[in-house]
């Protein structure tokens, strides 16, 4: 009620600060409460990862293995950190499920492709813009006396304004969800192409097949269904895209 016309800015500012805070403290203070992070031992795998990071000028400072197998067989790898303080985390399930070191490195090449192509930064900016637009839309609804009167309310209760906004934004949310999935899927194809250009196409194909099998993911869904419901392309589409890249290179 006290926010007035600047309510959207206040809400967005709070959420933006909270997002930065969580991005900072979650991997360092919260995640270790639930999983054990250990440095990746010295060996050929570590050397290959460090060589790949160095070739891409990725400022790798620490390399961890997390015991994801204690809760799930799901395998993954991710990176975090700001500016020149980057860290890479491998799930122990990823190491167990891949046939060799090169398949693991190919998965990291895909993830580093997201970093090199600025996908993470683009996604963060997009989320912030959408969050601000949502808060702005709520502010417009909250301050519209005519809208409340059209629903039979003489005053403007905060909770009623929220309910009205949540119902009116549903069609827009479906459209935005579809568009965001299209962008996310495009990013995945680009990251696959990035890994392929580094020479990891055969290893990436093998790793994708194994990870899909172990994670029990849908491998070949209807293209229209997957475009709307999946933020990542199904396995068949990703393998086909990698083959198309090979064909174009040969031609």
UniProtKB/TrEMBL annotation:
Its membrane topology: Multi-pass membrane protein
Any GO BP: CAAX-box protein processing
EC number of the protein: 3.4.24.84
Family: Belongs to the peptidase M48A family.
Location relative to the cell: Endoplasmic reticulum membrane
Major site of localization recorded for this protein: endoplasmic reticulum
CDD domains: M48A_Zmpste24p_like (cd07343)
Domain of life: Eukaryota
Chain sites annotated for binding Zn(2+): 110, 114, 188
Annotated Pfam families: Peptidase_M48, Peptidase_M48_N
Residue intervals of the Peptidase M48 domain: 40-244
Keyword line: Endoplasmic reticulum, Hydrolase, Membrane, Metal-binding, Metalloprotease, Protease, Transmembrane, Transmembrane helix, Zinc
Domain CAAX prenyl protease 1 N-terminal: 1-36
Species in which this protein is naturally found: Aegilops tauschii subsp. strangulata
Listed InterPro entries: CAXX_Prtase_1 (IPR027057), Peptidase_M48 (IPR001915), Peptidase_M48_N (IPR032456)
Transmembrane segments: 6-26
Protein name per Swiss-Prot or TrEMBL: CAAX prenyl protease
Entry keyword annotation includes DNA damage: no
Chain's role: Proteolytically removes the C-terminal three residues of farnesylated proteins.
Keyword Endoplasmic reticulum among UniProt keywords: yes
Catalytic reaction(s) noted: Hydrolyzes the peptide bond -P2-(S-farnesyl or geranylgeranyl)C-P1'-P2'-P3'-COOH where P1' and P2' are amino acids with aliphatic side chains and P3' is any C-terminal residue
GO molecular function: metal ion binding; metalloendopeptidase activity
Cofactor: binding comment: Binds 1 zinc ion per subunit.
GO cellular component, as recorded: endoplasmic reticulum membrane
PANTHER family noted in UniProt: CAAX PRENYL PROTEASE 1 (PTHR10120)
